Amino acid sequence: MKSITEILGGCQMVFGISYDIQEIFEGYVTNEHRTFIQMLQVIEEFLPACDRPGSLLGRKSYDETAMIRSCLARHFFNIATVTALRNRLLSDPSLRQICGFTVIPSEATFVRGMINLLAHSRQVF
After folding, report:
1. b/e code 19-55 from CB counts within 10 Å (16+ = b)
2. In whole angstroms, what separates CA 18 from the centre of its chain?
3. pTM here?
4. What is the C-alpha separation between 88 and 115, in angstroms, rounded?
5. Local confidence band at 11 (pLDDT 50, 70, 90 cut-offs)
6. CA angle (100 as vertex; 78, 20 as ends), nearest 5
7. Phi, psi (5° rounding) for residue 104?
């Protein structure tokens, strides 16, 4: 998956070239969205690669980067539950696009994904 900087136009965001990021997104981009994007730009530089090979059995898994971004969004936007996070992603196309989802996972998939990310992060760090 592309980093948030690549999604937004690479060097333009880093070097402060002024352009309207609203043109990139489906929905309206609020100041909170913009602050969250800037936070992701800083954090993603330090995240380990999330390219674990998927299993050949079962359903195709969701992108780990999107799951990580949604976990960060949950804390950044003070979303209390996984149900509320899922509802927010369903109703907010800009946040859905920032996180990198085309299809929103079920609540159970979110919980399993968060548990898997925690287990994987313990192995990496």
Report:
1. eebeeebeeebeeebeebbeebeeebeeeeeeeeeee
2. 24
3. 0.74
4. 21
5. very low
6. 85
7. -85, 125
